[in-house]
Amino acid sequence: MTNHWIDIKNSDAVLIIGSNAAEHHPVAFKWVMRAKENGAVLMHVDPKFSRTSARCDFHVPLRSGTDIPFLGGMINYILEKELFFKEYVFNYTNFAFVVGKDYEFNDGLFSGYDPKTRKYDQSKWAFEKGPDGGPVIDETLKNERCVFNLMKKHYSRYTLKTVSDVTGVSAENLLRVYDAFCATGKPDKAGTIMYALGWTQHTVGVQNIRASSLIQLLLGNIGIAGGGINALRGEPNVQGSTDHGLLYSSLPGYHNLPVSTWQTLADYNKANTPVTTLKNSANWWSNRPKYVASLLKGWYGDAATPENDFCYEYLPKLEPGEDCSYMYVMDKMYHGKIKGGFIFGVNPMNSFSNTNKMRAALDKLDWLVCSELHNSETTDNWQRPGVDPKTKKTEVFLLPSAHRIEKAGTISNSGRWLQWFDKAVEPGGQARNFADIFVPLINKIRDLYRKEGGTLPDPLLKMHWTEKFEPEEWTRRINGFFWADTKVGDKEYKRGQLVPAFAQLKDDGSTSSLNWVYAGSFTEEAGNKSKKRDASQTPMQANIGLFPNWSWCWPVNRRVLYNRASVDLNGKPFNPKRAVIEWDGSKWIGDVPDGPWPPMADKEMGKLPFIMTKDGYAQFYGTGRLDGPFPEHYEPAETPLDSHPFSKQLSSPVYKFHTSDMDQMAKAADPNYPYVLTTYSLTEHWCGGGETRNVPNLLETEPQLYIEMSHELAKEKGINNGDGVIVESARGRVEAIAMVTVRIRPFTVMGKTVHLVGMPFAYGWTTPKCGDSTNRLTVGAYDPNTTIPESKACLVNLRKADKLTEIA
Amino acid sequence: MVARTVWQARQKGLQTFPDSVRGFNKEWNMKTTRRSFLKLMGVSAVGLSLCQLGFDLEEAQAYASKLKIEGAKEVGSVCPFCSVCCQIIAYVRNGKLVSTEGDPDFPVNEGALCAKGAALFSMYTNPHRLTKPLYRAPHSDKWVEKDWDWTLNQIARRVKDARDKDMVLKNEKGQTVNRVDSLFMMGTSHASNEECAVIHQAIRSLGMVQMDHQARV
Ligand code: SF4
Question: Which residue among A27, A248, A697 sits closest to B212, beta carbon to beta carbon?
C-alpha cells in the first residue's frame, strides 16, 4: 500500500476493483465504511456481487480479465474531458518527456517485437536523449512524441462503445464510475483504488496496476491522504517476506539477485545504480551500493572486506532472463530435474494453478521437507485419492511448525507498519518456529563441511551466523550495526552499536544491515520501535488518522509514500483540510516527508517528489515492463472471444506458458469450454484453507466447495440450487455444489451472451468430503513480468452430476 | 451493527477516562484498572449500558472475577491470517492459553476481529495439529514418528550431497555462478521478518536460486 489502512477513511471516492475487501480484509473494511460515513462514494467493480458490493453505493459487474479496457476508458474520459489535476501532472509527472523515434504502436503490438522469442526489445521504447544524456522535455507539448500526446492517442481508442462491448459493462454504468471517481481530480478531493489478487492473477496483472497508476497520477491522487494505490496484501507477512526478498530474483531490500554477467560488485553496482542528469532529482537508488555492501557485511561479517568485494563472489548468480519462480520450478520438477526442497507454510498442491500437474510434479522429487501446522494436500500428496503410495518414491520429512502465538518477532502489515508480537505460550508438542528449524539445520550442514569438506564450503562456513535463534537479535541485525567506531554529527557510535537510520549506511564495510528499508526500526536511542504503543499525535496528524508513535513503519516511519506530491511547489498542501505534510518556512510538519529537502520552490535544494524514480518524475510512460510502456488490452490466455475491438492481437503477445502434456489450453471461443471461471477466497477460510479447514467452527460455517452461477445458466443446464455439478477445463475435473444466485449475471459481450461462474479455492481432499482443489481447473499461463498465473480467468464447461465422489 | 456500536462506546469511554487508566502507556502489560475497565465494557456488550453501571469499578471487578481470563497474563500478539495484521491479546494462565481477543487499543482494528481472527483460540486447540516430526519413507504408505535430531541429520545429509554434486561453479561461458539448480525453497509469507532474514541468508549461502514465497499464489 502506498498509504495505510486507517488512511482509507480520508477518501472521497473509493474504487474497489479486483478485490472483495469486505470478505477478505474484513476488519480493514471498517475504514472504508468510515469514509462512507464521511460522505465518500464507494464503488465495487467485480464479476460478482458480494458483501463488498452490498456495502457500496453501487456494484458494476465486469467480465473477468477486462480491467484494462475498463481503466483505459477512464483514462480516455479524463483526458478528453480535461479532468486531470493540471498543476500535479505538470510539475510531478513525465508527461512532457519526449519519447525516442523508435517507439511505435501498431495494431496491438509495440515496436521491437520478436514473434520467435515472444519478447520485446525494450530499447526501442527509450526516451529521447539530450546532449547531456538526460531526458528531452517539451512542456509546450508541441512534439507529438511527448508522453502526454502518445498517451492521449493510445487511449483515444478506448471509447465508451469499445470498452462496453468488451467488458460487458453498460455505457451508463461506465459513466457512473468514471464520473464519480474522476471528480477526485480536484486539489481538495481524494480517491483511492483498492485491489488484490483479482488484479494480479492475470496474464496482464502488472499492466492492470500500471493502468491504475496512470489514473491516480492524472487525478493527482498519489501521495495524498485518502489516495494511493492500495494493494490489499493477502498472506499475513507477504509485505515483510517481499521486503526480505524471499523471491528467486531478489536480495533483501529490493535489490536484484546477481546474474552471471555481473561478475564483480562493481559490475553489479554499475548495472543497478541509476544515474540522473537532473539536479532536482533525489534519485534515491543512487544509494544502492551502500545498501548492498551493508547487506553483504551483515551476511559475512568480518570476512567481508572492501578488498574481497564483501564476499560478493559467494552469491549464487542466475543466467540473465532465467525464470526460477515457482511455476518454472514446478515445470522443471515435472520433468525430473529437481532432487529435493523445502515447502514451508504454503500448500502448492491446492493453491497453485493447474494443480494436477503440480501433484504429478511433486511425485518426481527424491525428497521433500515440509513444515506445517497440519497435514495438507502437499504433505500427503503421496497418498492422494486415486494413487497407490507404493508407486510414489518421494521421501517426506514433515516438521511440526509453531503457531503465531507460540513465537516472538515482527510482522509488517499491508501499510508497512512493523508490529512486534510476543510469545504467549510454548509451541504445541515438539513444534518449532521456522528459524528454529533452519538455524540448527544449517549448523549441521556446516559441521558436515567442517568434517568432510565438499564443494565451495566458504559461503556457509564464513558467514556471520548464529548457534541459536533469538528473535530480537535478528530484529537488530535487520536494522544493522556499525562495524567500526563512527561519528555521526556530534554523536559517537562504537563498533557493535545499532545504526540510527539508513542515511548512515556506508559502502566501505563500516556498517551492516540485513535490510536497509528497516534501518531505523531498532536504535540505541529508542530501542525496538516495533513495540511502540503510543497513540499520541499532533492535531494535524490526528486529523488524517496518522499514528506516528504506534509501532514503526518503513521507510523512516513515513506513513504515506510519495507525500511530497501532496504539496505545491511552496510546500503548501493541495488540500489544507487533509494535509499530510506542510513546509512551515523552515521545516516539514505532519508525516515524515520523502526526504528532508525544502520544497521545490527552492531551486537549488528542492527535490522532485518521486524520489525512487531516476529522474524524480512519476511515469505515465515507462520502459521497464516487458509487455509495453502503456497498458493495452489483451484477452486472457483462455478467452470466450475470438476477436476484440482494440487490435488483432487477441491475447498478450508476451505472456509466458509451459508446453508439457499437462499444460493443455482451450482454444479461443472454444465451444467445448464456453464459460468463464473466476476463483476466490472466503472470509472463513484462509486462502487454500490448509489451516482453517482444520478449525471445526470455521469448517462448519463454510463446509464445502460450491460453484456460483446465474439463474439463466442454471436453467440452460438444467441445474437446481444444491445439485452436484461436474466442472471441467482442458486440464482437470472438479466436483462442486451448485449455488444458483442473482449475484452472478450473464454478460453481453460483443453482442453475445457470456456466462461466468465463480468458485472458492479453499477446499482440498485432506478434509474429508468437502471437495478438492479448484485449481485443478485453472490455467498455466503467466504474466511476463511476474510469472503470476492467470488463476482469475479461464474457460470451463459444466454439467449436472449423477453422482459425487469428492463431496458428501 | 452491534459490534461497531460497542466499540464506539469503548472508544468514547476511553476518551472520557483519566489518562492513568486509558492504557495508552508504552508497556505491553496494561494496568489492572484498565483491564478491569475493559471487562466492564465487555459487560456493556451483553446488554448493560454504561450509565446503568455508572463506571463502578468495584462492581466491575466483582463481575470480572467470574470471567475465564481472571488472573491471566496478557500477551500482545498479531492475528496470523491476512495482512490487516489485527492485534490480539492472548490471555495465558499457568502457561496455557485461556482466551484470545482483539486488542481494543490498536488503532487499526480497534478491538475488532473477523471470523478467522476470532477463531484463533479454536485454531490453537484444534485436534488436527501436528506435534512431532514425521517421516514417510520412499514407497511407504504411512507416517512414522521421528525425533528432531534424526530428522535434521537426514535432511542435512541430503542437502549437502545435492549441493556437493550439483553446485555449478562456472557456467558454459566460464563465468562464476556458484549456483545449485536441483534444490528449491517455497514459502513462506507466514514467517516473521526475523525468520525471513534467517531463511534468506541460509538459502543463498547454500547457493540456491529457486526460492519463492506466496507473492504469486
Ligand atoms: S482478524 Fe481477520 S481481518 Fe484481522 S488480520 Fe485476522 S484475518 Fe485479517
Answer: A248
